[in-house]
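[audit] Reproducing an earlier prediction to check determinism. Same input, same settings, fresh worker. If the tokens differ from the archived copy the diff job will pick it up downstream; this log only records the rerun itself.
[audit] input (297 residues):
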Amino acid sequence: MNKKQLSAWGIIGIFLLSWVGFVIFSNLSGNGALEVQVEKHLASVASSKAERIGTFLDERKVDLEFLVGLDKVTSSFEAGAVDSELAKELESFRKVNGYLDLILIDIDGSVLWSSSNKGIIGTNLGGIDSELGRVFDKVQNDFGVGIFDPGYFNEGEKLSVFVTSPVLVESESVMGKMDMLGIVALQIDNKEIEGRVVSDVGLEGGKIYLVNKDATPISELIGEDGRQIVKVETVMVKDCFKNYQNYYFERSGQKVNLIGKSGIYDGYSGEKVFGAHDYILRTGWCVLVEKEELECS
């Protein structure tokens, strides 16, 4: 083989190496770009779902603020009883809005009225070891404002969420102070929440779910073994609630370490996933979105 032939083969070799390198680089760059797009999409989904649920719950609080602002409701708390006319109005309000129950509880824990559970009227919830009793205790300590994790508040009932608001009047003894007469509580079917967290994330094989601050799923999650998952203690969940805390730290003027809202995580079943998360203010909940990593690579 003469020098010209060697030179020609050398040029061809360099060309082939360059071409192979270009193809490999293009593939890696393409996959990297795809990963970025997937993560951005999932972050957008998490944000929109969190906003949607937050808006729904805020609207329920507006309903409550309307009710507690009525003079006839305040008068009922002061009198310690609900008359038949107001009872009809409250019953109609509950049915029109599709709530499971509407409950009026005075400051001492006595149930003044219930739309759906007449048997609890007159019951004192103070110190009672029940879900509804625990709701009242927390509400009393939090000055009447609360959104509660889903629970079964009465035997045989549907999984539901309570949203509460205080009934306030101006104090007769201290100028500028408001006294709490009691609370009004809306009981909402948890399906109203889950219905706003649909499974479709715009990518095949994706999953959206809600988790509370105790790492307990609010949405039903089934593991690969077919069993229901009762805790999701993943880095993604922890990152979401760190961001939740950071929101309030920043508002108080503290410096915080920023945490990304998307990336590659271990999913709730333990497999590697593309994941994204966002918190829902005033609820203690986070929205988590997962997409199997291999399907996107």
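[audit] rerun output stored. Observation attached for the diff report: Residues 107 and 140 are 8 Å apart (CA to CA).
[audit] end
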